[in-house]
Amino acid sequence: MMTPSLYIFAIVWLPYWAATTRYDTQMFQQNSYRPRRWWRWSVSSREYASRSQLLSVSAAALFAFTWHPSALLIYAAWATVIAWAEFAMHYKIRLAYTMRIRRLLTTRTLLTAAAITLTAIYAPRWALSVAMILTLQGWSVAVNAVNSPMERAITRHYYNDARRILRSMPQLTVIGITGSFGKTSTKNFLYRILSERYNVLMTPGNFNTTLGVVRTVREQLKPYHQIFIVEMGAKQRGDIREICDLVHPSIGIVTSVGEMHLETFGSVEDVARTKFELIESLPADGLGVVNIDSEAAAAHLLRSKTRCLTYAIENPAADYRAVDISYAAGETTFDVVTPSGRHDGYMTHILGSGNLLNITAALAVADRLGIGVEQQRTGVMQIRQIEHRLSMRNSGGITVIDDAYNSNPTGAKMALEVLGAFRTEGRRYVVTPGFVEMGQRQYDNNREFGRRIALSGCDAVFVVNEVNRQAICDGLSAEGYPAERTHVVASFAEASAALSAIMRTGDVVLYENDLPDSFK
């Protein structure tokens, strides 16, 4: 028979279990359902996860030795505070309730109920301890292992269905785009230009994994589509080849090779090998297009001796080059040198030399697919800013340069160049948490980033979160940046609150990178 204290425990335990389960599942999803990656995050995680783990372990030990009502009430008060804090928390990336997540949560709920019921029947003294153990972080990884045979069967079915659809469209031209950075912008620019002549589909948003491509094919690819542009992301060797084995691209673009995801790749050379899996997967009559302003991409291309078209802004050896670049209010004009001659008079409304580089890649493919120069110019002119990728907006007389979705040194350098060149009588601000997932190069890259911020002429910098705080501040100090103009804050919300108190009409603020919730 349940006592009042046990009723209180049950009422409090349910929302606490729901809160810890949601958080655990969300972090597992953000770590791409990869147990090793989740474990690395878990080891370095602080704040909510640590508090909930401490409560669960302490309560489990307490209940193993006493069922005293006061112990239950103390737990109830503590658990209520943590549960409500979790449910009230705002996340940058929310848990996506995909079918896989729904299956995982269903299995976890059933196993939790079964474990508590069986313990209550056969070992009632341990029931409360078991209940608390089941709120620990990490059960989502274990439940995923239980579900893995079912998930593999479902994935195989979806994969085979997507392959069937692609095989039914032998005239479809598939273009793959990969790179450490620049691939999403290049995808969008290429889509806009090719749409001047063809019916084009591209993978939406960040659907750049095998399962994201499978979903796009099954839900969006139609018989009337002539071109399918596939963004290909990778976090380990073989990821690009896996996507290529599904879609069989005939054209491939490598936008860059950089120091992204070094925690899983280990070296820039391994990054290059992985990105060039796209080029190696092309047929004999296919077309590879490679950015040779990216030194690592150029070096790998030279070693591989693969024949590709190249593009650049700085490297004069490139087949396609954007030249005579001119910035004016609200527009950028440039010309393009191509193997067939110089094409003049391109104009775009977007910012940054990196974006012009991405447009140049798109123009190389457009030439191959028979898009005339006039159609190219029209397509380039109609390109619009991509939200959170060096996009610009004006809010109450304050200019916001939003580069929140860029998270690499090259993109950040370009954003700082735009900030430094921005014509304004107001002040310039930078808000950033720096870069992550760079392995042993993380400190050095963030320190260099701090140096570049100091040299950009910004009037104040807000360093968000703790993960790169020391490195960025060290870089700022190395260039003699005044300490009173460096502000360390715990979150973007705190930075925004501080900025709102000091910003005036004419000021400019650059938001560079926005870490997901798995980084603090």
Provide a compact summary of the structure.
51% of the residues lie in helices and 16% in strands. It is an alpha/beta fold.
From the structure above, extract its key features.
nine-stranded mixed β-sheet; 3 domains; 520 residues; UDP-N-acetylmuramoyl-L-alanine:D-glutamate ligase; Protein-Tyrosine Phosphatase, Chain A; alpha/beta; 15 strands; single chain; six-stranded mixed β-sheet
Structure notes:
The two termini are 44 Å apart. This protein has helices at residues 4-30, 35-44, 48-65, 69-88, 99-122, 127-133, 139-167, 183-194, 210-220, 239-247, 262-265, 268-275, 277-280, 295-304, 353-368, 373-381, 409-421, 442-455, 469-478, 492-502, and strands at 173-178, 200-202, 227-231, 251-254, 287-291, 309-312, 320-328, 331-338, 341-348, 391-395, 398-403, 428-432, 460-464, 486-489, 508-512. By secondary structure, it is an alpha/beta fold. The longest helix has 29 residues, at 139-167. The model has no long low-confidence stretch (mean pLDDT 86).
Output the structural class.
Answer: alpha/beta
Sheet with the most strands: spatial strand order: 2-3-1-4-5-6-7-8-9
Q: How would you state the average pLDDT, rounded? A: 86
* C-alpha Rg (nearest Å): 26 Å
Span of the ends, CA to CA: 44 Å
- The CATH topology of the largest domain: UDP-N-acetylmuramoyl-L-alanine:D-glutamate ligase
CATH class of the largest domain: Alpha Beta
In the predicted model, the low-confidence regions spanning at least 5 consecutive residues are: none
Main beta-sheet annotation: 9 strands, mixed
Q: Residue share in helices?
A: 40-55%
